[in-house]
Amino acid sequence: MPKITKPQQIALARLVTRDADRAEEASRIPTWPNYRTARKAVQVGYDCIMIFWCGMWLGIEKDGYTHS
């Protein structure tokens, strides 16, 4: 697992929670059952971490800013 900053950890935890909420609304299995599983799916980008979420790649900057 790549080393990530505290703001990146918080942003990733928000994505896991958001994904669980969306899965419940759509009656489907969430992409990640928990934070640890999502953390293992993180890829290292040029100057941010990248994670595949809901059909798109999201970048999470060192300050926690998340963008597609």
How would you describe this structure in keywords?
21% strand, four-stranded antiparallel beta sheet, 68 residues, single chain, elongated, alpha+beta
Explain what the structure shows.
By secondary structure, the protein is an alpha+beta fold. The chain has one domain (6-67). It contains 2 helices and 4 strands. Strands 1-2-3-4 form a 4-stranded antiparallel sheet. A hairpin with a 5-residue loop joins strand 3 and strand 4. The protein is elongated and about 35 Å long.
Give the structure's gist in a few sentences.
This protein is an alpha+beta fold and 68 residues long. It is 38% helix and 21% strand.
Quote the distance from N terminus to C terminus. 21 Å
Beta-strand content estimate: 15-25%
Average pLDDT, rounded to a whole number, is: 88
Query: SSE order, as H and E?
Result: HHEEEE
Q: What topology does this entry show?
A:
Elements: H1 6-25, H2 35-40, E1 43-44, E2 49-53, E3 56-60, E4 66-67
Antiparallel strand pairs: 1-2, 2-3, 3-4
